[in-house]
Amino acid sequence: MTAGQAGVFWLEFDPDSGHNLLRKVSGESPQWGTPPTIDIRSEVNGYGGGALCAGRDAVYAVEASQQQIHRIDAATGATSAITQDADASFGGLVWDPFHHRTLAVRERSGCQQLVAVRDYNEVVPLHDSEDFYSAPALSASGERIAWICWSLPDMPWVRSVLWTAEVGEDGALIRARCWPTPGEGSVQQPVFDGETLHVLSDHEGWWQIWCVSWPDEQARWTCLDSTAADHASSPWQLGERHFCPLGQGGWVWVRYVNGVGELWLKRSTGSSSAKVAPGFNDFRHITVFDGQLYCIARSATRLDSVLAVDLATNRARLLAGDEAPFSDAPIVSPEPFQVPPSNGVTEEVAGFWYPPVDGSTDNNPPPLILIAHGGPTSMAWPVFNPQVQFWCHHGFAVADVNYRGSAGFGRRCRMALAGNWGQSDVEDMERAADHLVATGRADVSRLFIQGRSSGGYTALMAMTRGTRFRAGASLFGVSDPARLREVTHRFESGYLDWLLGAPSDYPERWHERTPVQQAHCIRRPMIFFQGGQDRVVVPEQTRQMVRVLEQNGQSAELWWFEDEGHGFRQRKNQVALLENLLAFYDQHSRKCNDGG
């Protein structure tokens, strides 16, 4: 989402075309900003982000197929490419009104740069000494700039640093300086309040808002909100915004409490803070423009919404979305649960349980599907998920689990997965299952586990540890980390070594936590879904896992979608996935009820 003189703009995913389409509000009602043939998406770092920014009379956006920046006229929608760098991808776009240019991160030939783009292929490098760059931020005068960098082998949420520079009259950067955090930590989302710089830093355990100044050439870090809570999630994408200044000491920010997002607003220095937009559980892309706060908001019972909050009254109004997903069917709301520490594990497990709509009772607990979220340094949000609703309407309970290593629970929880992937996450999935069985919310004989991508790895590892789960599902999941390590993209090239330790140092650990090497331990049925164009989990990896299981005499189904990549985008394939997975779970639920 972005806002400027040209209006308020955001992206909406169109399931029919599989494209991200531009929408805008310049009056009261949303309009399409581009035809459905234009797909807007950045691929920098593989996950993109910051694919658009609003200029004076146009929007600048990254077109998906060529990864070039296009100028889209705000009035007419006329589109033209302003970069023609065939080997590059762009992301993290920010409009610089002082030099009439777009600032961006350019990625090509295994390197990244902070660049400035003027109309029609004038691309000027600004900074290029570091491995990775975040979207930059400009001060109110345009004379100062800040950005975040990190270096291999780190991920940005493990260790990253703040950079600043002055901007010369010609737009070049002057006196670039690096400002490490006072303690070990990571920083993200730099933003200026006038000329004063703020960032989110977790060097004291949580991603909190810090003011950073350097009056005597020594950085001073001052915390604005010391609440023991994360104020952002993991920065997988460029250009995320979870907080924003309002001027006169006022702020708006997101705070995560037990995995639930809250939106808080403080109008000025000395005023009290207030929680706004109740009923929504996650907020992203916070933007303030012309006395209004804009954001993408998500709730447990509605589709994603675009909110506008009047900063004078705190009243929120809908610009788009918030439509009822079903016209004649109930929506199942999540019920938070916590699993207390036990058996030497000192951390709680948090998650969200969704009951089936068929009214199962204590004497007849429902079958349960446990979902391991992807990432793995991501989190489960209590927001509307049509696939979760699908399971609940077909008689299953669902548990979406935030295992150790999840974001949103502080640095200690997030870092707990270092060297422990395939162990701590699996233990926590088992703890969640046992807790829900013990509290009468799941049938112990009908427990299923599934996950996408890295969540598929967690599900596979859980299936190697015995027969607690009746069956498991891997949706384009990792079954051979060593193979993934050989082909993974640059952004995550050091991630697996952080998750498991370097293979040269821990060869036994890698063997023990590689599902394809432990396939002989799987004693229950598995089902796999794989895209033939997947560039993250190489398709052959899934074929090999299925072959090994079949050679061992185990039941393994494989559903192949040749036209899909990593994550299914086409509606027909999403429907086919759910239908086949439902048949699989129903089959093994019936076998259990029949004594099989």
From TrEMBL:
An example Gene Ontology biological process: proteolysis
Pfam families listed in its UniProt record: Peptidase_S9
GO MF term (any one): serine-type peptidase activity
Region forming the signal peptide: none
Gene3D superfamilies registered for this protein in UniProt: alpha/beta hydrolase (3.40.50.1820)
Peptidase S9 prolyl oligopeptidase catalytic domain segment(s): 384-590
InterPro entries: AB_hydrolase_fold, Peptidase_S9_cat, Xaa-Pro_dipeptidyl-ppase/CocE
Protein name: Peptidase S9 prolyl oligopeptidase catalytic domain-containing protein
Phylogenetic lineage: Bacteria, Pseudomonadati, Pseudomonadota, Gammaproteobacteria, Pseudomonadales
